Structure formats: structure tokens, C-alpha cells
Amino acid sequence: MKRYLVHSITFLIIAVLMTGCGDGDPTGPENEGSFSVSITGDINKNITGSAWFWSGTVEGEEGFVIWLSSELQNNETGESLWFAREGATRPGSGTYVIGNFDSVDEDEWNPQHFFAWYVGTGTYIWSESGSITVTVSSSNRFAGSFQYTGVGYSSQDWESELEVTISGDFDAVGGDFQFPDFKYMEVPSN
User: Fold this and answer.
1) Model-level pTM?
2) What integer pLDDT is reported at residue 1 of this predicted model?
3) Vertex 105: Cα angle to 98 and 57 (nearest 5)
């Protein structure tokens, strides 16, 4: 069931990427948060863009999500990273484990851990191990840094596994995001 939550959130984020944030951005265009990310290994690039966080319920499962999305360029889909954690409670300041998404079914979902994903044009990477450090946690701002190793595949070569290290920082803004089957909840502080 936990994997279903992640897949539901993944579907919602991809749907938002396809439609863009546009006028539906509840925080306004001048306040979209920010992030800076470096990817090294089988992919080498730097990415910047906007950052948001929210919590809510998908198919009866509660989750907390941080979403980092690059700007669309040349009519191509932007790149995004997101972090998900079980439960609607916004984590307080501190350092948290980024877990191995491949082992979530065998080891069960640990509600104290995050899982992370990167989606680029034709590329899908999920977390193996790492950590995220939260320096600011309030109802309208969630900031910190992270580093994790990840594995995944490219749609151009499904046979060869990609291995990367992804690190960066973020300063995300909260909002009342209204997606189908995603109900916004007030996020209590820790």
C-alpha cells in the first residue's frame, strides 16, 4: 500500500509537470521558493528552479512531499526532484534518512525516512541512501540541504542501470495545492 502512495504522488507530480503551475500557484509567481542541485556520476548536470512543499491524503494514505521543479526550456518538460515521507506531519529541524526505495516492500516504509526521485527527459532515478537536513520548518517555509545516491534508467537504454549522486539545497514554500484525489491538510508543526 505504501508503494501505491508513492506511485499516486508520482502520477500527480507528473500530471502537474505536464500542465505547469501557471495561474494555479497559490503562493504567486513572485514567491515560488528555490533550489539548486548538482547531479554527478552517469549523469552530470546542475539544475535550479522553484520549490514547494505540502502534505495531504492520496487514496487514504497520508504523505508529506517536497517538490523541486526546473523551468521549462524550449518547450521541453522540466526536470524535477521530489521527496516523500509517510504521514502528514511536517518534519521539524534536524537530519533525516533518505531510504532505499527498492527495498520498501521488503523492509516496510519507515515513517521517519524520506524517499527521493529525480525525473528528467527520459530518465527516472530513485534513492538508494542518503540524508536530508532541515534547517527551517514552518507552515509557509521549509528549507535545508540533501545528498543521496540513486539508481535508475534512461528510456534510451533500459538495459543499463544509471548510478548518480544528487546533492543540493532548497528553500520551499507551502501552499494549498488542489490536485484531483489530493486533499490539502493543515500541516501541524513538530
Assistant:
1) 0.74
2) 39
3) 70
